[in-house]
Design brief:
It is a single chain. Helices cover 26% and strands 19% of the residues. Strand 2 and strand 3 (60-65) form a beta hairpin. Strands 1-2-3 form a 3-stranded antiparallel sheet. The chain is of the alpha+beta class and 81 residues long. It contains 2 helices and 3 strands.
């Protein structure tokens, strides 16, 4: 099996959200929210677009890989950094 790694394009957004929703639907709980989390992450300042990739197999989207900057929080701190 050959997977093609490619940078994610803006026109992949909807297809990626559908893939994630279908992958996690009713797995851990009724319905799912994972696709919503990914959509929100894309708008976050910590999102790293240079590390956002899709994997395709036979010209069909089969996976997504992304990264964000880490955030460190303390249980006593009012804010995260």
């Amino acid at each position: 099996m050959i997977l093609l790694f490619a940078p994610k394009r803006e026109n992949d957004y909807r297809e990626v959200e559908n893939l994630v929703r279908e992958s996690f639907w009713n797995v851990y709980a009724p319905g799912c929210t994972e696709h919503f989390v990914l959509k929100r992450l894309r708008d976050c300042a910590d999102f790293v677009p240079e590390l956002d990739f899709v994997m395709e197999r036979t010209a069909k989207l089969s996976a997504r890989m992304f990264s964000s900057k880490p955030t460190f929080c303390s249980t006593t701190a009012q804010s995260c950094r």
